[in-house]
Design goal:
Blueprint (H helix, E strand, L loop, with lengths): L2 E5 L2 E4 L4 E8 L7 E7 L6 E7 L4 E3 L7 E4 L6 E6 L8 E9 L5 E4 L3 E6 L1
Length: 118
């Protein structure tokens, strides 16, 4: 059974940085795409950044130049470096692992909270 676990959230002042981590267990096959989403209170979940298994990345306009997604050689781990954080970045950050072989489908983590104080 695939499990997705996020870590690294916390409370930080505006302008600060955090590094989120996501690890996927339960599959010997790498996910096709891994992505970070976030959800602020009262708002819909939105895509923050994604990375494919051949390192093609995509970012939401509101994080370009501030956040960086990366995926080391161990393919079922993904990081999100958050720099120059703003209060509007506050929310629960979720990791998604999308498989097209093996455990086909989308697998979500439980989320990690990021709170940015002004």
């Amino acid at each position: 059974q695939v499990q997705v676990v996020e870590s690294g959230g916390g409370l930080v002042q505006a302008g600060g940085s955090l590094r989120l981590s996501c690890s996927v267990s339960g599959s010997l096959i790498g996910a096709k795409t891994m992505a970070w989403y976030r959800q602020a209170p009262g708002k819909q979940r939105e895509l923050v950044a994604s990375i494919t298994n051949n390192d093609i990345t995509a970012y939401a306009d509101f994080v370009k130049g501030r956040f960086t997604i990366s995926r080391p050689y161990t393919r079922n781990i993904v990081y999100l470096q958050l720099n120059s954080l703003k209060p509007e970045d506050t929310g629960a950050y979720y990791c998604l692992a999308h498989f097209i072989v093996g455990p086909v489908g989308d697998h979500w983590g439980q989320g990690t909270q990021v709170t940015v104080s002004s």
